Amino acid sequence: MPPSENGHDEPVIRDNRKIDPETGQVRGASGVQQEAPAEAPQAQDGELAAQLAERTADLQRLQAEYTNYRRRVERDRAAVREQSVAGALVELLPVLDDIGRARDHGELTGGFAKVAESLEAALTKLGLSAFGQKGDPFDPTVHEALMHSYSPEVTEPTAIEVLQPGYRLGDRVLRPARVAVAEPEDAPPASNDDDDN
Asked: Which stretches are annotated as coiled coil (predicted)?
């Protein structure tokens, strides 16, 4: 190496890249550009297009699988959460029944009333809602009839008394409302016998 002006050796930089950055041509081992082997350009383009189409299809398939997997995981996560919340709420329903009985007898006062209100507010925030009112039409999908009678005051089977409120979590019934049901008096009595002829 020739010494530089200040007496130090200058570094020598060799460009060993296989492709010339300016022309895009392939270089030989000596750094001299070589011509790319002459292939039919149409055949090469067709092969590249086929490979590109194959890779694109693979990528789209993987993306669809991942999207489906993510949706399934989110759906399962929501279902597990709802199931867990429902299980905890079912265990607290007897406590709500006791609070309701204490309220009905006037025993829900002072600090206990505040605790009861806080508990009810927290359970409502989780999605718990009570249902079953006196005068509701009887619906066997959400009511459990514990008593039955006839009354001239009703025109259809009706809950005339709520013995225990029902509870829902969203659309899911956690416990049916337990009610006393009255039917119209003019309803024909149920008969097990066929018509006598």
From this structure: 52-79
